[in-house]
């Protein structure tokens, strides 16, 4: 039995329907963490599905209550073969966003996995049930082929990622010694291009905040008062326009990072962003001038207006509205002081004459920025393993464009973090018709089997002292 046989086993698992059957069972559980009525389903996913599966693979499993009242439970699974061996920490989340059943295509149900051509449709197929199903199946194939792993695994599955991972940081801090490992290897998010294996080493941070202009108690007739009363929608529109130029380049000095180093630029050089056949076309003129698309999304910050309301958009009336509000977001990279994001915007607005604009961080919507050096030994090791399996040099991203609770693993647990995503940018992960691409799944199963086989061989990076 050898590496090639373990890889072939994962390909048979996919070709003969094993992957579809296991993922269908997991998709069917309506683990909507944004829906308080689904709390029982979160427990079923951990206790009824994942725990029995992992115990069959020789893992010792325990389910833990969340230290936050807002969060769902955690499953911790450990397979320790020898304390002297490399220990891998891995992660996944069993929760999904709301099903949005009424918005899916006719004949599709978010809770029933369905294949159409090369697409596997179902809520959680891409985010994140499909991705941790791939990794665990590859792990199982290596275990069956070799008879042992040759390394140790600690796996944490949470059930609150789609609500901001409440309690995750506290849980990991409380269990830091138990969760100690040499490296994080996990999967979430999209590949750079569907056909190109990808590594990302951290995440952009995300901070959401609200802006509002609240001028008076009620609306006033636009004929009688137009030209006499400030319009809060116009005031807020100009305030928003001051944050970037007309092409989206950021004007708040503190939001312009100094971390787009030559090493980061070298890692991003030549990378092409590709969302597949259904992906949008990049607006070449948008964002920070002088940067490539890859540098703009992986090495720079972006400001977004996610919602803007004034008056009654559904039933407009001829009245000057009393209030306008906007829900906004800054995606930021390492090099921006997270604690100064909101204060810096306050200073910027005041300097530009918008002191009447109210500003407050949103209750939800915060992830810290993290980044592992592209030349870290574990990055080089993982890239070589993937190249050996697929014959493709993976794209290496210093950080994902999106956000994950990677700061918990990088900073609280002190781990080098290597993410190997199995989805693609146009998978509709937070929308109707979420799906995985079958060719990507099959290749991902193979390359993860290669990763797990190689972890049990000589040549892994030296363990930290």
Describe this structure in words.
By secondary structure, the chain is α/β, with parallel strands linked by helices. The protein has helices spanning 3-15, 18-27, 39-56, 129-146, 168-174, 222-225, 232-243, 262-268, 293-298, 341-351, 377-390, 406-412, 438-455, and strands at residues 60-64, 74-79, 87-93, 114-116, 119-121, 152-158, 183-186, 198-200, 205-214, 220-221, 302-310, 319-320, 323-332, 358-367, 395-397, 417-419, 435-437. It contains 13 helices and 17 strands. The chain is globular. Strand 4 and strand 5 form a beta hairpin.
Could you name the key traits of this structure?
about 475 residues, alpha/beta, 6-stranded mixed sheet, 4-stranded antiparallel sheet, 13 helices, 17 strands, about 30% helix, globular
Distance between the termini: 33 Å
List the uncertain runs: none
The string of secondary-structure elements, in order, is HHHEEEEEHEHEEEEHHHHEEEHEHEHEEH
How would the global form be characterised? globular
Share of residues in helices? 25-40%
Rg over CA atoms, rounded to whole Å, is 24 Å
Strand tally is 17
**What kind of sheet is the major sheet?**
6 strands, mixed
In percent, how much strand structure appears in the residues?
15-25%
Mean pLDDT figure: 96
Number of helices: 13
Instruction: Report the structural category.
Output: alpha/beta
Strand order of the biggest β-sheet: 1-2-6-3-7-16
């Amino acid at each position: 039995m050898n590496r090639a046989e373990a890889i072939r086993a994962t390909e048979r698992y996919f070709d003969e329907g094993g992957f579809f059957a296991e993922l269908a069972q997991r998709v069917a559980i309506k683990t909507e963490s944004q829906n308080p009525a689904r709390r029982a389903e979160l427990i079923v996913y951990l206790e009824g599905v994942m725990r029995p599966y992992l115990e069959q693979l020789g893992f010792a499993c325990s389910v833990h209550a969340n230290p936050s009242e807002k969060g769902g439970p955690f499953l911790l699974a450990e397979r320790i073969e020898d304390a002297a061996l490399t220990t891998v920490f891995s992660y996944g989340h069993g929760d999904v966003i709301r099903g949005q059943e009424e918005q899916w295509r006719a004949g599709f149900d978010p809770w029933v996995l369905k294949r159409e051509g090369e697409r596997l449709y179902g809520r959680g197929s891409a985010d994140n049930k499909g991705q941790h199903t791939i990794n665990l199946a590859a792990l199982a194939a290596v275990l069956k082929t070799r008879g042992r792993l040759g390394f140790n695994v600690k796996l944490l599955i949470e059930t609150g990622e789609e609500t901001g991972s409440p309690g995750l940081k506290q849980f990991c801090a409380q269990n830091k010694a138990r969760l100690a490992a040499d490296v994080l290897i996990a999967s979430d998010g999209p590949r750079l291009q569907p056909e190109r294996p990808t590594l990302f080493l951290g995440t952009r941070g995300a901070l959401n905040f609200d802006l509002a202009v609240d001028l008076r108690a009620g609306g006033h007739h636009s004929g009688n008062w137009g030209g006499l009363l400030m319009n809060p929608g116009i005031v807020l529109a100009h305030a928003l326009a001051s944050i970037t130029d007309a092409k989206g380049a950021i004007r708040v000095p503190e939001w312009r990072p100094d971390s787009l180093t030559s090493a980061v630029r070298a890692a991003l050089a030549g990378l092409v962003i590709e969302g597949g056949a259904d992906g949008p076309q990049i607006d070449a003129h948008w964002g920070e001038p002088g940067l490539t698309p890859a540098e703009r999304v992986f090495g720079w910050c972006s400001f977004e207006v996610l919602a803007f309301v004034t008056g009654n958009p559904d039933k407009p009336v001829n009245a000057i509205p009393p209030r306008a509000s906007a829900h906004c977001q800054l995606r930021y990279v390492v090099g921006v002081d997270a604690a100064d994001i909101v204060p810096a915007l306050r200073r910027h607005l005041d300097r530009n004459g918008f002191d009447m604009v109210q500003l407050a961080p949103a209750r939800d919507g915060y992830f810290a920025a993290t980044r592992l050096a592209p030349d870290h030994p574990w990055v080089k090791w993982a890239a070589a393993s993937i190249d050996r399996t697929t014959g493709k040099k993976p794209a290496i991203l210093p950080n994902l464009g999106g956000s994950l609770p990677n700061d918990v693993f990088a900073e609280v647990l002190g781990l080098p973090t290597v993410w190997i995503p199995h989805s693609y940018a146009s998978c509709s992960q937070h929308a109707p018709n979420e799906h995985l691409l079958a060719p990507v799944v099959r290749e991902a199963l193979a390359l993860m089997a290669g990763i797990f086989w190689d972890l049990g061989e000589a040549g892994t990076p030296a363990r930290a002292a």
